[in-house]
Amino acid sequence: MTERQTDPRIAETILEHVADILLALSDVGAGDYSTRLRTSLPDDHPLGTLYTGINEMIASLQAEQERSSVYRRELEEKLAMIEVQRAAIRELSTPVMEVWDGVLCLPVVGALDGARSSEMTEALLRAIVDKKARTTIIDITGIQVMDTGTADHFLRMAKAVRLLGAQCVLTGINPGIAQTIVHMGVDLSDLVTHRTLRDALQDSVDGHDDDEFYEHEPPRRALT
Amino acid sequence: MSTTKDGTNGNDGENTLGMTRGYIVQSCIAYVDRTYDAATRARIHAGLPAEVKALAGRHNPVDWYPRIHTTAFFRAIALNEPSDDDAYRALFRCGRSIAETATHTFMKQVMKIISPALFTKKVSDLWARDHRGGRLTADAARLDENRLTVHLTDIEGFDYVAPTASGYFCYAFEAMGKTDVECVLTGWSMQKPGPRDVAFDLKWK
């Protein structure tokens, strides 16, 4: 068997080209897609063809990388927008309205977890102090499911409200939730309840009017 | 990456038209962090130009940065030493550290096949791969005697790069399996740290 002898000059040339290719590939591996292999070899030379193939592959990777960059930028913008919207939703999910002089209303819609409950309580207590409110009506018409956790959140909220010297009224309890509360054995006796927001508001306003009336004039019933 | 319109960085009038790859700056930072105690490190970092300080630790390995990002560290390393000889040795060690980073990353595969002859042919490409500005060429006339002369030209203003290049070459030849590698640098001094041209005479066994 005869061993094929390789011309040292050819071996050296091949080695040189391999080094070029390795350097270009290492650039690409490090994230530099601008690198290209340059050669004076003719197009039909095997190494020239290899160079062309590698350059085409790098160009393709570069195009893909640029597309990925665009997608990443768009994704980052969308995530930033979601964060802004989330903040807006957070703000809107705890609307405390002054519906009458000294009467605040907090309509609750959707699920109530620990974090949202804390935010609501904080917003409500701040509003009680700012508006010098005497009554707060928590309307849960928009709540479809009540569990012990949610009921506990309301009890804590009511306790905090009472500590500020205001009354806490719960309204909008639907029949299903009423049954659930009884079934769970949750004691809501500390809370004043009304069937609707309208009833609670009417009661608050009437009570307030009576107070003012008694302060300035003797009650009419006493005169008759 | 930025250069001012007149090509100077507004600090000592140093030319910043030349650029270097970020991995070199990263290697300098790693060298400083590894070599010096906390107080010296703090002094070196505090003395860096504002534009370098602003980016320190955030250089992208493949991006290009004005030379000042490299020379600021070279200068700090040199000026930290008590004598010119010590400064040369410290910069030499920094150059070895840069070469070590290179040979363990982008040069890793190339190092498996490289020889002094191939290094001689590729030295210009290797320089151009990491630097914009300046030119590195090698004279292969005495390769048979295990000697090589390398010329680094058009590097005026690229302060302190010459001693680090010496360290780089020595490490690269040792990584090729060569022993007793020596490099004699001519045309450079601490008094003139950024001459136009320098030469390196390498020999090995």
Description:
The complex is a heterodimer of chains A (224) and B (205). Chain A has helices at residues 8-29, 46-92, 114-131, 148-163, 175-184, 197-216, 220-223; strands at residues 97-100, 103-109, 135-142, 167-171, 192-194. With 224 residues, chain A is of the alpha/beta class. The longest helix of chain A has 47 residues, at 46-92. In chain A, helix 1 (8-29) runs parallel beside helix 2 (46-92) and helix 3 (114-131) runs parallel beside helix 4 (148-163). Chain A folds into two domains: 8-88; 97-223, STAS domain (Transcription Regulator spoIIAA, 2-Layer Sandwich). Chain A starts with 7 loop residues before the first helix and ends with a helix. In chain A, strands 1-2-3-4-5 form a five-stranded mixed β-sheet, sandwiched between helices. In chain A, helix 5 (175-184) links the parallel strand 4 (167-171) and strand 5 (192-194). Chain A is built from seven helices and five strands. With 205 residues, chain B is of the alpha+beta class. Chain B has a domain at 109-203: Gyrase A, domain 2. Helix content of chain B is 47%, strand content 15%. Chain B has eight helices and seven strands. Chain B has helices spanning 22-35, 38-46, 50-55, 68-79, 84-104, 108-111, 116-130, 161-175, and strands spanning 19-21, 64-66, 131-132, 135-139, 147-153, 182-186, 198-203. In chain B, the strands form two sheets. A four-stranded antiparallel β-sheet of chain B has the order 4-5-7-6, covered by helices on one side. In chain B, strands 2-1-3 form a three-stranded antiparallel β-sheet. The relative contact order of chain B is 0.15. The model of chain B is unreliable at 1-16 (pLDDT under 50). The A-B interface holds A 12, 15-16, 18-20, 22-23, 25-27, 29-32 and B 23, 60-62, 105-110, 113-114, 117-118, 121-122, 125-126, 129.
What's the quick description here?
The complex is a heterodimer of chains A (224) and B (205). Chain A contains 7 helices and 5 strands; from the N terminus they run ααββαβαβαβαα. Chain A has 224 residues and is an alpha/beta fold.
